[in-house]
Design brief:
The complex is a heterodimer of chains A (52) and B (243).
Chain A: H1 10-50
Chain B: H1 2-5, H2 8-39, H3 53-80, H4 83-115, H5 123-144, H6 148-162, H7 165-175, H8 195-242
Helix pairs in contact in B: 2-8, 3-4, 3-6, 3-8, 4-5, 4-8, 5-6, 5-7
Classes of the chains: A mainly alpha (52), B mainly alpha (243).
Chain lengths: 52, 243
Amino acid sequence: MLDLDMGKYVVYVWGSYGATALTLIALTVASVAAHRAQKRKLNALQDESRQP
Amino acid sequence: MISWLANPERFSRIFTPIRPYIGVAAALMFVWGLYLCFASPEDYQQGDTVRIMYMHVPAAWMAMAVYLIMGIASFFGLIWRHSLADVAAKAAAPIGAAFTALSLLTGSLWGRPMWGTWWEWDGRMTSVLVLFLFYIGYMALHAAIEDETRAAKSTAILAMIGLVNLPIIKFSVDWWNTLHQGASVIRADGPSIAPDMLWPLLVMALAFKLLFVWLWLVRIDTELMARRYRALRARLSFAEEGN
């Protein structure tokens, strides 16, 4: 049985979980977005370099 | 083995195919870990605030582990000049900084209801804040120096100086009076924490570790592509000037 009622500590407990989720999701999104952008940039330049 | 893996092409060839599996494993461990976090009992003294431990402790462990990895990579980069070493250290820094910020933030949110204060300038908290400043300093220095070789050398020295702080963090609770509790998991006589609380903690710690490995591999690949891009751009510019 899950206990989701944090009683008088609701702000501290959910605040911790919220901050953790937000930070880790932001880090993941930023890392994946940077990876995709860099891949696109490199592919475009490689295509350009192959043109005679 | 390390020299063999330090070849960027070989590294990408080995780790790119297994990277998605690590990401999926991290996501599954987070789901399982979160279930255990809220299925575990509340503490008889701390009540529900004990659940903050499942975020705070893995973040704090990772803050130190990532810095140790950065320090080791910097050592290899400085001594043996492995081309991948600086890339690995640079890619780890923002992840380590995020874990350190989280350990400080969740620690503060745990400290307020338990100790009656958000912050105390004691050994443990101050040394973790110093660790965070080392991460920020490392990233700022890397960004400030344009020449890659010079940036790698300067940041490697800084990272290795920062290694001194790791034993200070670990033993600060033994060396000085502090509000922070002593070690309850990594102890010579075994964990002093109840199994009902130890399991969620270990599962969350594994989830944090897997997430780090996945993010690290993604960021290493990004940095390798950025360096390939800069090299190719320089070659093209040189060829254009020659024509």
